[in-house]
Amino acid sequence: LVARPELDVRPERVRERGAVRRGDLLVHNAKYQGAASLGITRVIGMPGDTVEIRAGDALVNGKPFAREATGETYGDDIFSAAVVRETTPEGRSYTIAVPDPRPQTQADNFGPVTVPTGKYFVMGDNRYNSLDSRFPDMFNEDGFVAQSDVVGVAASVLAANDHARIGLTLR
């Protein structure tokens, strides 16, 4: 997900910068194929972590993120995905979109990489339609989000195609 640069990120909708945690949904300055924008992506790896993606699943320091089907779907006639609950090794959970059937892409197997000091490894919640840390040549010149580029952590849903999600409080 990429927010429009002209989007008004109101302070009451973005948690003040503090301790960023794995699983947080970051609002950050980004460069997508060299073009400056505002990004919204999920923190997968923290500074010093070793991150790898195997068969589409995230592992951090050798520990997998758990996934569980919710029975819900997301999309329309053009794109459809299963809504899956992903849980970090620390126990934080959130939902992501995973197409069914899942396509095989270069993003299915990535790394391992060690997250540099002062940076985060991030992935979009729509895993197969996201330009993120799995594409270091196209995302932020090195694939990571620098702590200095973090605007804040998303606190609630401001806009969504599914109007029932507007106002939803995020963890």
Overall 3D geometry?
globular
Fraction of residues in helices? Answer: under 10%
Distance between the termini: 18 Å
- Annotation field: number of helices: 0
Mean pLDDT: 82
Description:
- The two termini are 18 Å apart.
- The radius of gyration is 15 Å and the shape is globular.
- Strands 1, 2, 3, 4, 12, 13 and 14 form a seven-stranded antiparallel β-sheet that branches. A four-stranded antiparallel β-sheet has the order 7-6-5-11, with no helix packed on it.
- The chain contains no helices and 14 strands.
- Helix content is 0%, strand content 44%.
Task: Reconstruct the topology from this structure.
Elements: E1 2-3, E2 14-15, E3 25-32, E4 35-45, E5 50-54, E6 57-60, E7 63-64, E8 66-75, E9 80-87, E10 93-99, E11 110-114, E12 119-123, E13 145-146, E14 150-154
Antiparallel strand pairs: 1-4, 2-14, 3-4, 3-14, 4-12, 5-6, 5-11, 6-7, 8-9, 9-10, 12-13
The gist of it:
By secondary structure, this protein is mostly beta strands.
Descriptors for this entry?
171 residues, mainly beta, seven-stranded antiparallel sheet, 0% helix
